[in-house]
Amino acid sequence: MPGCNHCHTDEAAVSAANPGFRKVLWIALIANAAMFFIEIGASWRSGSVALLADAVDFGGDAANYALSLFVLSMALQTRAKAALVKGVSMGLYGVGVLGFALYAAFSGEVPVHTTMGLVALLALAVNVGVAAIQYKYREGDSNMRSVWLCSRNDAIGNLAVLGAAVLVGVTQTAWPDLVVAALMASLGLSASVSVIKQARGEMRVP
Q: For residues 22 and 40, what is the distance between their CA atoms, to the nearest angstrom?
C-alpha cells in the first residue's frame, strides 16, 4: 500500500530507541559470546562440523549484536549500512561452512554424537530464550530484523544439529553432521539475501 513503508520506518525508529530493545541486545550479546566458546571446544572434542558451524555462527552473532548496539540510536541509513555489513557476513558464513563441510566429507571422521546432542540441547535453550525476548521487535527496520533472523536461524540450526546427533549415533557415519552443516549454511545465505535487500532499500530512503 502507498505510504506503508514510510509509516513502518517511523515505527521502527521509535522501537529502535526503546531501552528495552537495547537490553535485549545486551542479553543476546552475552549469551552468544558464551556459547561461542563452549561450542568451539565441543566441536573440536567431538569432531562435528555442524557444531563448529554453529560455534562460528554464535561468534558472528555476538559481533553483530555489538554492531547493532553501536548504531542503535543513529539514523536509519546508518543502521541500514550496519545491517548491510551483517547481511554480507551472513553470506560469507554460509559460503565458508559449505567449503568446510566439503573438506570434512573427505576426512571420514565420525563425530561423537553424545557430545553433539548435549551441546545442541544447551544451544537450543539459549537461542529459544533469546528469540523469545526479541520476538516483538522482528518487524522493525533491517537492523532489528537481522537480529531476529539470527536468533530464528540459530534455533532452527540447533534442532537440526540435535537431529544429526541422533542420526550419527544410529548410522555411525558423518553424513548427517555434514548435511546439517550444509543446511545451516543455506539458512545463512537465505537470511543474507533478505537482510541485504531490505538494507539497500532503507539506504535509499530520503
A: 27
Angle (CA) 116-119-121 rounded to 5° is: 105
Domain membership of residue 31 as a residue range: 4-203
Distance of CA 168 to CAs 29, 31, 55, 116, 163, Å? 31, 27, 19, 9, 9
Predicted model pTM: 0.71
Nearest residue to 98 via CA among 191, 168, 179: 179
Which residue in the block uniquely carries the three cell numbers 535509499?
A: 204
pLDDT band at 142 (very low <50, low <70, confident <90, very high): low
Helix, strand, coil proportions of the chain in percent (round to 5)? 85, 0, 15
Q: Give the per-residue pLDDT at 10.
A: 34
Overall domain count for the chain: 1
CA separation for the pair 40, 137 (Å, rounded): 29
